[in-house]
Amino acid sequence: MPKITVDGRTIECKDRQMVLQACLDAGLTIPHYCYHPGLSIVASCRICLVEVEGLPKLVPSCQTPVRDGMVVYSNSPKAIANQKAVMEYLLINHPLDCPVCDQAGECYLQDYSYEYGRSESRFEEDKAKKPKKDLGLNVLLYNDRCIMCTRCVRFTREVSGQSELYVDGRGHREEIDIFPGKPLDNKLSGNVVDLCPVGALLDKDFLFKQRVWLLKQAPSISPADSGGENIYIEYNEGVIYRIKPRFNPEANQWWISDDTRYSFKPVHSPDRLRQARRSQYGSQIETAYGKAIEAADAAMRAAAKETAGALYAVLSPMMSCEEAWLLGKYVRSIDPTAVLILGPVPTMGEDEVFKHYLTGKETFRIKAEKVPNAAGIRRVITMLGGPSATFDDLIAATKPELKNLKAGWIVGGYLSNWIPTNQPAQFKKGFRVVQDILPTSLSEAADVVLPAAAWAEKDGCWENHAGKIQPFSAAIRPVEGARREGDVYFALLGRKGMYRAEDIRKEMGDPFATIKTPGIKEEERRLEFVEL
Ligand code: SF4
Ligand code: FES
């Protein structure tokens, strides 16, 4: 492995790596705008220029491969003079609107201005003013903030492959634009907002909602499909404001789909179920959560006493593997022949595949399966053994072993309505406990309704389409009136102490036992524990 020396520090590099990436990997800072590890290198912004011993002039560190024994200076007088000159040039026409810019606090221009810029501007003429533009469904362009790094243009060519963005004009008239009648509306469009190093490209949904330094991050996984995209949920005081990609070379690299980006909306839906209910004399009445659980448990036990094989549980592919495990354990503890059923797995057409505009190489895939954990629930049902059936079997009720079903525990948690429109009589028959986040025809007709926690309100793990099991952690508390499923099953199983997804994974054994919940502090978890 080649070794280079940067500002007096020797670092190990990968073969044929660029100097800038080697420095970033080693934790050294070299300013850069146009370079992004997921895009082609254009070396156009020139702020990353460094001095290399033996070379007559400064070279772009983002485009210069490492060579064993290379000696690099990013803080020599020549390199510093260049950084200051580039900053001065970029700020000539940049508006001074940081106080109202969404990017303030996470803006490269702001940070580098502080680190590498001049304290005063020598420019006294009028700044060029450029119009704001609506680029498409989710993205706005504040053109006069743009520093022409072309990251956004390269993304639409090299990753989303649709080439909607281009550079119009030359010199100081250069602008990012779309072609007439061709808005930026592909399913990866939101990534250009993440890529933009300044506040030129903005997410319409996040616009003026929150100062970024107030946001906290919880590492999580996308609930939108079975791709298992790694994300950060960004929230403040119990409200989720946005979702950002979390780099994972084996899942989503640096990108996420717009389905994932806005998948937090149902969490704050005004329709969320907030009140436990149970049926009395043919209609539902409000009840305390604890009472609803007692009623559900008593009815499940009574049905199991009457007939063997009378119980079933519908395990939703929105549940975590740990929750599915505990619910399976609970129904089987009452009736060892209880049937475990994977809930509906909605799909939409075929996978959406994105390709590089020139090479045709696949760059991103949005899975057609629109739930995150069908594979994990299938795995848990297999681990638990015993009778199982498909959701179609349950609906059709043609199998003789499903004829005796008298009581079922049905879990939803989907981001939108999931109930098949024509439920046959058999599915409607018998005692039904429904644990869900949004109201459906099923929750309205259920004997017990238990408001559940959405995925961002609990932790656990999901298995994606490729068999990769990934943990996610809670960002916010469940809405008032809702309870985490894990807490409910823990109470029903009569277990002492507190439900912790990590403990359940140890109990489940391989391949779950060694998976750690990312970024959760024990003290925070205690604060978030809610008595049933
Ligand atoms: S809009 Fe942002 S990402 Fe696109 S060229 Fe301008 S600064 Fe770069
Ligand atoms: S980051 Fe190297 S020239 Fe832009």
Describe the strand arrangement of the main beta sheet, using strand numbers.
15-14-23-22-21-16-17-20
Low-confidence stretches: none
Care to count the β-strands? 25
Gyration radius, to the nearest Å?
A: 27 Å
Mean pLDDT: 93
Helix content: 10-25%
What's the helix count? 15
Q: Which structural class should the secondary elements be placed in? A: alpha/beta
Query: What is the global morphology?
Result: elongated
What distance separates the N and C termini? 57 Å
Largest sheet: 8 strands, mixed
Give the percentage of residues in beta strands: 15-25%
What is the chains' assembly state? single chain
Bound ions, cofactors and other small molecules, one mention each? iron/sulfur cluster, FE2/S2 (inorganic) cluster
